[in-house]
Amino acid sequence: MRQRKQQRLIHFDYTTPGAYFVTICVSDMQCKLGDVVEGQRVLNEAGELVKTCWLDLPHHYSNCDLDEFVVMPNHFHGIVRIVGNGLKPFPTQHGLPEIVRGLKTFSSRRINASKSGNPFQWQKSYYDRVIRNERELHLTREYIVNNPLSWELDKNNRDINGNELFM
User: What are the phi and psi torsion angles at 164 (to 5°)?
Assistant: First the structure.
């Protein structure tokens, strides 16, 4: 059986305080979260539910702060900040994999409960990058904010590839 490629950095503690860039893709890169029209995101109900679940994460994970994010038609980009214990220890120090798992689970459940038809699913894994300094943080924020403007060039954009929009 083929071994899956290790996505995370080996021997890195993903509960370490810091900023992390994550990308999560919809299963089969289907455009189920909305559209981009003239560089502006137009979220459908599923896209709005992903946004709501993202903004709700700090209520579930006390050591989680959120930064810039964007919900695209077939993927999500966001910056998660894991904050340290400081003077008051958190009951549980959740790591990035648990926080991403939470977003995927909470949003899938809410989307699937809200509509009938084909069930919504995220791809099994996700992409992450540890943001190492302020310059990287600035560039990552810029990338996220400008992501809808580059949708026309995205290989999974239905308008340039003749793909159907799966809403």
Answer: -80, 150
Helix (H) or strand (E) holding 62: none
**Cα 9 from chain centroid (whole Å):** 18
94, two tokens: 């959740």
Mean pLDDT value across residues 122-145: 95
Q: Which residues contact 17 (CB under 8 A, 6 or more apart)?
A: 63, 81, 82, 83, 84
- The answer to whether 145 and 67 are in contact (CB under 8 A) is no
Does an H or E element contain 49, and which?
A: helix 45-60
Q: What does the chain come to in residues?
A: 167
CA 82 to chain centre: 15
pTM of the model: 0.85
Residue 66 sits at the vertex; the CA angle it makes with 64 and 71, to the nearest 5 degrees, is: 130
